[in-house]
Structure formats: structure tokens, C-alpha cells
Known about the structure:
By secondary structure, this protein is mainly β. The protein contains no helices and ten strands. It has strands at 3-7, 11-14, 20-27, 32-39, 47-49, 54-58, 66-74, 82-91, 96-106, 113-123. The strands form two sheets. Strands 1, 2, 4, 5, 7 and 10 form a six-stranded mixed beta sheet that branches. A four-stranded antiparallel beta sheet has the order 6-3-8-9, with no helix packed on it.
Amino acid sequence: MEIKPKKLPDQLLTVMKTKNVLVTVVIGNAQIGSSRLKFEEETDAVATGKIKNQSVGTGRDLPGKKLNIITRVLDSNPRNNKISIKHIFHYEDGREIFILDETDNEVDNNMDIFSLEVSYQFTH
Length: 124
């Protein structure tokens, strides 16, 4: 079992001051995985495991903060070694702010692990 890491450049997201910002992480291709959301300056994670509609704060509080998301996927689908990960930032009403769509990833062997790391910075 090998781990294939991938780190993307920081992403800059523009958010509305008055809205609560949520994150959903989607793992596709019938694979299984888990994520960790953690602000750079804090010791505790915001959330770990399956991430769905996880609040990371209001737009008013987020500028100047950097949210790091690490998603690890175990290639458990014996039909292919493709890995698909989406980080979806949205408001409570469902309006999307940003979608990171990492669909062109692949591991070498079944049961290998793909690790994606991305940091998000916020502005108004």
C-alpha cells in the first residue's frame, strides 16, 4: 500500500460578510475516504471524517484566516484506480461560493491511498 500525495496552491475565496460559510467534501468513484479541516493558527481541527455542510464561520470572521483541508482516499474500488475529490464551499441557502473539482487523479494499485492537501484563504 502506497500513499500518493498531492498539494495544490492556496486558493483565494471571496465570501459575503453576513453569510455563514459551509464546506462539503465529496469523494467519488465508489472510493472511501476522510477529511480534516483545520485553521492554520489553531491547534484543534474544525472537523474530521465525513464532511457535509460543515460550518467554518461567517464571512465577517474568515478574512485573514487560512483553512487547510487534507482529504485521504483509499482506493477500494477494484474496477479502477481513479480518485475523485470535490471541496464545495457554499452558503446555508445552497448557493455555491467555490468548487474545487479534482477528478484527474489516479493511484497505481488497488488499496493505495491518495492524499490531497489544499489551503483556502478568505476575502470580501
